[in-house]
Amino acid sequence: MQSSSSPLPECSCLLPPIGAQSALFLDFDGTLAELAPQPDAVQVAADLVPTLTQLAARLNGALAIVSGRPLTDLDGFLAPLRLPSVAEHGAQRRLISGEIIRMASPDLQAVICRVNTLAQRHPGLRVEIKTAAVALHYRHAPEMEAVCRQAMDEVVRSTVGLELLHGKYVHEIKPAGASKGTAIEDFMAQAPFAGRLPLFAGDDITDEDGFSAVQRMGGCGIKVGEGATRARYRCLSPVALRQWLQRAAQDLTGRTSP
Ligand SMILES: O=P(O)(O)OC[C@H]1O[C@H](O[C@H]2O[C@H](CO)[C@@H](O)[C@H](O)[C@H]2O)[C@H](O)[C@@H](O)[C@@H]1O
């Protein structure tokens, strides 16, 4: 929880209701699924896909995943579901129709070369190359945080059209201007999201733009886990978040059943 010296207001641990007129935006890692030692070691809880399926139906499709992951990862973890999604921190957006809107992909060659060279020298580092972004993970070499940050910073400054993000034991390079907040705003301008009250749950600093966006639109941000946040609500863990989603799916189903 926040310390008393934090300038940010305390947020409530009582989660807001999910109603038939809500639009749900959900981050993946650390929010829907517990963090794992490696990106490909994430386990998806058995009840998650059935709950999301039921909720998406009850919200008339107004449920989207908002993630730093590539679309292929999200589809793999949530199979057979293929939800409207924000991928790679906003570099791609898949609409409910299945159409994918992609930001112009920057030239990542210099980035890839730099991070691969670093990772070859330090086996604790892990490089993740996506379609429009590159992540350098240092979870297993935390002492390398500053070295990784400096390398990523240098390459961003010498390449046009890139921006650096800092997540949980990861530095990521993505197209400049891509953000979860902007992507949520774009979804909220279109059916089936338009006119609904947006709720966004996320666990990381990279989700703060999304919290601000939904709260500007009269909705609520929900921070999962510890750490300072602009979100109005806090949920203690991914398990608690999944229980909140499951209860809402049951309540909405009861309300709409004949
Ligand atoms: O926006 P998200 O859905 O939260 O994705 C953010 C990044 O998540 C992944 O990395 C994080 O989760 C890994 C698995 O739990 C963990 O090992 C790593 O330390 C975390 O940083 C993913 O690998 C990245 O591509 C996402 O951008």
UniProtKB/TrEMBL annotation:
Source superkingdom: Bacteria
Keywords: Hydrolase, Magnesium, Metal-binding
InterPro entries: HAD-like_sf, HAD-SF_hydro_IIB, HAD_sf, OTSB-like, Trehalose_PPase
Gene Ontology molecular function: metal ion binding; trehalose-phosphatase activity
CDD domains: HAD_TPP
Matching Pfam families: Trehalose_PPase (PF02358)
Cofactor(s) needed for function: Mg(2+)
Associated pathway: Glycan biosynthesis; trehalose biosynthesis
Catalytic activity entry: alpha,alpha-trehalose 6-phosphate + H2O = alpha,alpha-trehalose + phosphate
GO biological process: one example: trehalose biosynthetic process
EC numbers, comma separated: 3.1.3.12
Listed PANTHER family: TREHALOSE 6-PHOSPHATE PHOSPHATASE
Xref: NCBIfam families: HAD-SF-IIB (TIGR01484), T6PP (TIGR00685)
Protein purpose: Removes the phosphate from trehalose 6-phosphate to produce free trehalose.
Record-stated family: Belongs to the trehalose phosphatase family.
Protein name as annotated: Trehalose 6-phosphate phosphatase
Lineage per the UniProt record: Bacteria, Pseudomonadati, Pseudomonadota, Betaproteobacteria, Burkholderiales
